[in-house]
Amino acid sequence: MNQAYVMPDSRVYLLIEVDRNVWEIWDGFRLSVAKEVQVSRVGVVTPERVKIKLSDRTNFKRVVLSASTVILEPNSFHGWDKPLLTHNLDSFAHMHYAICIVLAEQLNFTLNLSLSSDYGWNYGNGTYSGLIGKLQREEIDFTAAGGLMRSDRMDVGDLTVGTFIARTVAIYKQPPLSSVNNIFTLPFMPNVWIVMFVIMSVFTVALIFFTWTSNWLQGAKMKISIALDSITLVFAAICQQGLLLAAAHYSIPARIATFTLFLCAVFLFTSYAACIVVLLQSASKTINTIVDLADKPITFSAQDTRHNYIYFNETTDANIKKIYLEKLKPQGTKAFTSPEIGVERVRNEFHSYLVEITVAYHIIAKTWQEHEKCSLSETELYKIPLLTLYVVKKSGYKDVFKQKMIQQNEIGLKYRITKKIMPQKQKCISANSGVIRFDSVSIKEIYPALLFLGYGICISWLLLIFEYIYKTQVDK
C-alpha cells in the first residue's frame, strides 16, 4: 500500500474482518507523492447494513505543491501584490495567481512557485518548452498560469476547468462616411426627390398663373420666356441663389408666392446643411467581416506574441491566409509589433491591428479621446481556446482542483478578479455628452461638391458658346 500511487482523487478501501461477518472499512491516500499513505477507519460492514463516512480530502495539511507561472515582460513586473501599471499578457498570469492563492487556502497547501520562460510549445519531437515542458517532465504539480486548451497539450497534461478568455481580435476604425459615399447625395432618398419635384412644380405653376393673371388684367401679352423665367426662379430659390427676375412679379399674389418659395427654400437648405454636418462626423460600416479585412485597402499588423505566429501558420481559412500573405508577410519584421505602436497606428491611419483585446482597451482608455472611440470596431479572426490550469497527466489532484475552482466561480471570486484586473471595453459617450466638437474638413470631403461645380461650369460655357453661335447665325 505504501508504494501505491493513491492521491486525493483516488478511492482505495481496505476491508478487515474483525468478527464473523463484520468488516471494518479503512481508507488510504497520499497528500503528495513524497508523503506516506494516510490510513483511517471510515466505516463498517455487516450483513444488515453498510455504514461509511467519506474521508475529508480537502485538507492537504500544508503539504508543499510545486507550480510554475510565466512572466513575458519582466521589466513591467513589480510583484504579485503590486497594481498593474501597464496592461499586457502578464495580466492573465496575475489573474491565475489570484486563483491559485485562493485554491491554496481552500485546500490548505503551501504553494512553491517558480517562473518559466514561456507557456510552452511543441518542439516537433514530442517534447515541449517552457511551462508545459516542466509539466511534462513532472517538475511541477500544476501550472499556476493559464494555458490554452489545445489538443496537442492534452497528451502531456490534464485539464481542470476553463478560467478566462483571451480574445485576440483585429481592431480598426471605420473609415469616414465621406470617404466611401457621396455625402451630398445621401440625404436625398427617393421620397425626398419626389417631394422636391412636387414643391418645385407647385411653385412654378403658381408663379406662371399669377404672372399670367396679372398680365391679363393689365392687358399685357403673356410671353413664353416669362414661364421659363419662373422655372429659373424656382431653381434659384432651391439653390439659395438670388434672381433679379423676382422683382418683376409686382403683383401681390406673385410676391407672396415668391416670398413663400424662398422661405421654404431656407428651411430646406437649413435641414440639408445640418444633415451634411452630421454625415461629415459619421463613420461608415464598410468593414465588418474577415472578408472585408482581406479585400479592402486597409493595412494590417499583429501583436508580437508566439500564439499569433502559431495560428497564422496553422490556419486553414483562405481569408486569413490572404491577410498573412498579402498584408503581413511583405512588411517583414514590421508586421508583428508592440501594442503601443499598433494601437497608435489604428488611431492615426486606416489600419487594422490584431491584438489581445484587453491590452488594447487599456491603451485606448489612457490615450484616445472620447470621440475617437465611437468609430472603433473589432472582428475576431479565429477562436482562441479557453485558458485553464493544467495538472500532471493522470494527476491525483485534478478532480479536487476542479471542484474548488468551480466553487470560486459560483461564489463570484473569479468575477471579482476579472473586474479588478481586466480593462473593460470603452463606451462611446461623446455623442450624448453635449460636448460640441469641430472636425476639420479637407478637400476629400467636399470633392463631390467641387466636381459638381466643375461640371456646372463646363456646361455653362458650352451653353454660352451655343448661344453665341446661334445668335450670330440668326443675325446673319
Can you give a write-up of this model?
Strand 5 (64-70), helix 1 and strand 6 (110-116) form a beta-alpha-beta unit. The longest helix has 33 residues, at 443-475. The chain has 476 residues and is of the alpha/beta class. It is elongated and about 140 Å long. Helix 1 (90-107) packs across helix 12 (398-410), helix 1 (90-107) runs antiparallel to helix 13 (413-421) and helix 4 crosses helix 5. The chain has helices at 90-107, 130-136, 177-180, 190-218, 224-238, 252-280, 290-295, 306-314, 318-328, 339-348, 357-367, 398-410, 413-421, 443-475, and strands spanning 13-19, 22-29, 38-45, 50-52, 64-70, 110-116, 142-143, 147-148, 157-162, 168-173, 299-303, 336-337, 351-356, 376-379, 387-392. The strands form 4 sheets. Strands 12-11-13-10-14 form a 5-stranded mixed β-sheet, with helices on both faces. A 4-stranded antiparallel β-sheet has the order 1-2-3-4, with no helix packed on it.
Short description, anyone?
By secondary structure, this protein is of the alpha/beta class. 43% of the residues lie in helices and 17% in strands.
Please write out the topology.
Layout: E1 13-19, E2 22-29, E3 38-45, E4 50-52, E5 64-70, H1 90-107, E6 110-116, H2 130-136, E7 142-143, E8 147-148, E9 157-162, E10 168-173, H3 177-180, H4 190-218, H5 224-238, H6 252-280, H7 290-295, E11 299-303, H8 306-314, H9 318-328, E12 336-337, H10 339-348, E13 351-356, H11 357-367, E14 376-379, E15 387-392, H12 398-410, H13 413-421, H14 443-475
Parallel strand pairs: 5-6, 5-7, 11-12, 11-13
Antiparallel strand pairs: 1-2, 2-3, 3-4, 8-15, 9-15, 10-13, 10-14
